[in-house]
């Protein structure tokens, strides 16, 4: 089917349908019908719903009821909260906090950021106390698994459209729900785009009072938008890794580590005499083994002082491997220990230092954990999205990584600027006894204000974090989600009056007709509501 005149969303959906035929998930005749319906859909959201009809669970055995969309007469749009927003430095990026339902936030982000988000991290509500008052089902989770999956499905579909072609999404999940949520990610992002399942050590030590086994870890699912375009960055080498390299013979090429020169198995021409250049001691490999280098190459290694025969020159030779020759970083593994990236207790201490009280936000993730995710997946200009923002840890990780690049750079190249990553956070404003104004107001926004400016919204500076840390600086635009009826024509109250194009990265339109065309074209998705 020709898709050149279709939107990118529809083209991608049709390509996914065709891939399902190749994977023998869909019959060709069914795929052809779905592709036609997608091409004829009135808008991208409708196309996504049609594509969902072609999802089968024979591969995973996973069944859940998807939430259905219905068209409403209300258009959701961004309205700036001038009270919570602040601007401090024209030379630093402007970040965003969106307060409201993250489904509606994602719909609005599609207006500006389709295919433009580089990294997404989410920590959805999966614990037993995270959401609602459900019966004790599905491992005693308060949010039932069917609700978890049906809540995530449409949001992941929108998130997929926001990701750049080389983008990556991370999802924190616990041991009880990991298998089910991974199946959901397989369906939305495709099994071939699965990258890894990181194990994070969430507690520092074993709980001896555990009834059965001490639950010490959680998972972070990693999926690419297109795995063929994904690039994973190396992590910095550790001091422990570098300490393994020494220089006992004061080689001018610097520290080195010795490596074996012998391999198992007989090989033709694999036996020959190697002489120490200082003592004349002769060496050969035992029977059943062979030198890993040819005789000619071994002589060249001796000539260039690349073999080590011990301090006295009479030890069996080993190959020098210089620190200057190894890769500048280390390949990330899939087991992340708390000593390196923090744990639950350290995350709680971070929040206490910022707010001065325990319980302000339950179960935050440590900044170090998110920072390392960003280290391996982002570049200095990346846009990072977290649409389950919670206390705002992802924002602090972005700010800290931006700053650490400058610190590292100052040691290497003077004047290197800070990283320029920007974050976009989305957070519902759920109200609790501890957060009477809502989590977004009382926790997320306040955390950002304090760590970025060094003071509270009321101008006070009486919190522990500021005593040991320098504020990150930067700018924050805070948006709330408002709605307007599509049939409202009262002057000053119509959609074309209240929707502000500058909040979507555009200059003011010169004419009303331009504004009307833009709203009608880009806000059809924002009229959809989940049942």
Write up what this structure looks like:
With 531 residues, the chain is of the alpha/beta class. The chain has helices at 8-22, 28-40, 44-52, 102-113, 145-162, 178-189, 239-243, 295-303, 338-341, 344-355, 367-377, 393-412, 439-453, 465-468, 495-498, 512-522; strands spanning 69-71, 74-80, 94-99, 117-122, 163-173, 194-201, 217-224, 235-236, 256-259, 262-264, 274-275, 282-283, 289-291, 307-308, 318-322, 329-330, 335-336, 383-386, 422-427, 475-485, 528-530. The strands form 6 sheets. It has a 10-stranded mixed beta sheet with strand order 2-20-3-19-18-4-5-7-6-17, sandwiched between helices. It has a 3-stranded antiparallel beta sheet with strand order 9-15-14. A two-stranded antiparallel ribbon has the order 1-21. Strand 11 and strand 12 (282-283) form a beta hairpin. The longest helix has 20 residues, at 393-412. The relative contact order is 0.16. The model is unreliable at 128-143 and 408-416 (pLDDT under 50).
List keywords for this structure.
531 residues, alpha/beta, ten-stranded mixed β-sheet, three-stranded antiparallel β-sheet, 16 helices, globular
Question: TL;DR?
Answer:
This protein has about 525 residues and is α/β, with parallel strands linked by helices.
Question: What structural category characterises the helix and strand content?
Answer: alpha/beta
Low-confidence stretches: 128-143, 408-416
Q: Give the overall form.
A: globular
- Put simply, the count of helices is 16
Average per-residue pLDDT, rounded, comes to 88
Major β-sheet, in short?
A: 10 strands, mixed
Strand content: 15-25%
Note the gap between the termini: 33 Å
Strand sequence of the main sheet, in spatial order?
2-20-3-19-18-4-5-7-6-17
Output the radius of gyration: 28 Å
The residue fraction in helices comes out at 25-40%
Number of strands: 21
């Amino acid at each position: 089917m020709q898709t050149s005149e279709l939107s990118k969303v529809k083209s991608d959906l049709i390509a996914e349908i065709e891939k399902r035929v190749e994977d023998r998930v869909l019959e060709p005749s069914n795929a052809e019908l779905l592709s036609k319906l997608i091409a004829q859909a009135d808008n991208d959201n409708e196309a996504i719903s049609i594509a969902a009809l072609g999802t089968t669970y024979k591969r995973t055995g996973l069944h859940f009821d998807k939430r259905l969309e219905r068209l409403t007469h209300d258009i959701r749009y961004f309205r700036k909260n001038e009270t919570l927003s602040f601007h401090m430095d024209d030379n630093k990026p402007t970040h965003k906090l969106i307060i409201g339902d993250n489904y509606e936030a994602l719909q609005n982000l599609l207006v500006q950021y389709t295919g433009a988000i580089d990294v997404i991290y989410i920590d959805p509500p999966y614990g037993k106390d995270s959401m609602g008052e459900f019966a004790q089902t599905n491992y005693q989770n308060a949010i039932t698994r069917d609700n978890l999956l049906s809540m995530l499905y449409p949001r992941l579909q929108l998130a997929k459209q926001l990701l750049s072609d080389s983008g990556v999404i991370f999802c924190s999940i616990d041991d009880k729900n990991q298998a089910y949520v991974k199946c959901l990610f397989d369906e939305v992002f495709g099994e071939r785009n699965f990258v890894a399942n990181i194990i994070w050590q969430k507690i520092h030590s074993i709980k001896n009072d555990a009834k059965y086994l001490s639950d010490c870890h959680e998972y972070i699912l990693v999926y690419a938008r297109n795995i063929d375009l994904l690039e994973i960055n190396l992590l910095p080498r550790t001091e422990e890794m570098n300490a393994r390299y020494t220089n006992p013979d004061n080689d001018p090429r610097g520290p080195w580590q010795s490596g074996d020169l012998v391999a198992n198995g007989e090989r033709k021409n694999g036996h020959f005499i190697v002489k120490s250049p200082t003592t004349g001691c002769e060496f050969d490999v035992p029977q059943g083994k062979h030198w890993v280098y040819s005789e000619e190459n071994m002589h060249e290694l001796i000539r260039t002082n690349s073999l080590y025969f011990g301090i006295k020159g009479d030890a069996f030779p080993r190959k020098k491997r210089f620190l200057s020759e190894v890769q500048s970083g280390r390949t990330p593994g899939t087991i992340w220990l708390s000593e390196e990236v923090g744990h639950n207790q350290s995350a709680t201490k971070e929040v206490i230092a910022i707010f001065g009280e325990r319980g302000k936000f339950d179960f935050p993730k440590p900044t170090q954990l998110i920072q390392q995710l960003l280290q391996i997946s982002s570049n200095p200009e990346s846009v990072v999205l977290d649409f389950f923002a919670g206390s705002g840890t992802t924002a602090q990780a972005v700010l800290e990584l931006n700053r650490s690049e400058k610190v590292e750079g100052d040691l290497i190249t003077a004047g290197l600027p800070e990283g320029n990553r920007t974050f976009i956070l989305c957070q519902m404003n759920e109200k609790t006894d501890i957060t009477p104004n809502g989590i977004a107001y009382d926790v997320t926004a306040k955390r950002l204000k304090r760590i970025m400016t060094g003071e509270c919204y009321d101008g006070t500076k009486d919190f522990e974090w500021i005593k040991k840390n320098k504020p990150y600086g930067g700018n924050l635009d805070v948006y709330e989600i408002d709605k307007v009826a599509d049939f409202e024509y009262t002057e000053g109250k119509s959609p074309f009056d209240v929707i502000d194009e500058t909040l979507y990265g555009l200059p003011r339109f010169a004419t009303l007709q331009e504004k009307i065309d833009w709203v009608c074209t880009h806000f059809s998705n924002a009229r959809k509501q989940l049942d």
